Amino acid sequence: MIEQRKLPAYAAGAIDVPFVIGFFQERVDVDTCWPSHSHPTHELLWNQRGSSTVSVGPRMWTITPVLGVWLPAGALHEGRACAGSVCNMSHFGIDSVEPIALEPVPVVITPLLRLLLERLADPGLNPTSRAITEAAAMDNLEPAPGHLSIHMPQADLLQPIVSGMVDEPQPALGLQQWSDRLGVSGRTISRAFQAETGSGYSRWVASLHAQQAMEMVARGDDLQDIAQLLGFSSQSSLGAAFRRNTGFTLSTFRDSK
After folding, report:
1. Which of 108, 115, 236, 238 could tie 227 with a disulfide, CB 3.0–4.6 Å?
2. Strand 77-81 vs strand 32-37: parallel, antiparallel, or unpaired?
């Protein structure tokens, strides 16, 4: 069962906030989702433990202790978090900081950035120290390189493929197998993926498996088990595919736990 929490949709700057960067944290005890909402502040989503996802329109990012997502103020988004995750939210006053991007972007949470953001949670931090810490945090906050999101197709034709693979991590069926199941040609399926996501079926599957691997690593699953679950012949082949797709190594996420 998934607990649903509704939040309001605020326009950028709709509420004045008494901070430059505010730090908030929540432990999620059950699988939880937040339907579409937005904030009057810029927001950086990142996790202390476990994994979550955020979606803006058809694009989805996985959030872990190493990888966060920057959301500009007023951006409508949906969120999901797994039970046991500890979710961090850093909010940025729109009149106090220059946004690092005007659209959602992934952000690598380096050890230094983590320490700076966590320090801002201290209510006893004096104004001078707080200002120095806020400036240092902004200096270390930048969009991550690489391909770190996935476009979720909305076309009716592709929904059996999307729902089947997203809901339960598994090896990918071949294009011909889906062609037989859906009663359309493999070329039709490929064109539908290309038209909506900008990539073919195989590339989309690689992106999905990368997102799922990040999530499983973040919750502590064994890399060999992840490889088998996703249909890779070995841990090394999973790692190579992950790096090719994202520009990161899986050990980056494993070592962060």
Report:
1. 238
2. antiparallel
Q: Tokens for 239?
A: 């790692």
| pLDDT at position 247 | 86
How high is the pLDDT of residue 254?
66
State the CATH number of the domain containing residue 45.
Answer: 2.60.120.280
Residues 213, 60, 154: CA angle, nearest 5 degrees: 115
Q: How far is CA 172 from the centre of its chain?
A: 21
The dihedrals phi and psi of 115, each to the nearest 5 degrees, come to: -60, -40
- Does 146 map to a domain? no
126 and 162 in a single domain? The answer is: no
CA–CA separation, 86 and 233 (whole Å): 32
- SS3 at position 23: strand
Residue 148 lies inside a defined structural domain of this protein? no
Residue 219: predicted pLDDT = 80
Q: How far apart are CA 200 and CA 193, in angstroms?
A: 5
**139, 167, 186 — which closes off a domain?**
139
| Domain boundary pick from 84, 112, 139 | 139
Mean pLDDT by 10 residues, the chain (257 residues): 94 96 95 97 95 95 94 98 94 97 95 96 95 97 87 94 89 93 95 94 94 88 93 93 88 63
Q: Tell me the pairing of strands 105-108 and 67-71.
A: antiparallel
Across 28-133, the runs of DSSP E, i.e. the strands, are 32-37, 42-49, 52-56, 59-63, 67-71, 77-81, 86-92, 105-108
CB hemisphere CA count around 197 (13 angstroms): 27
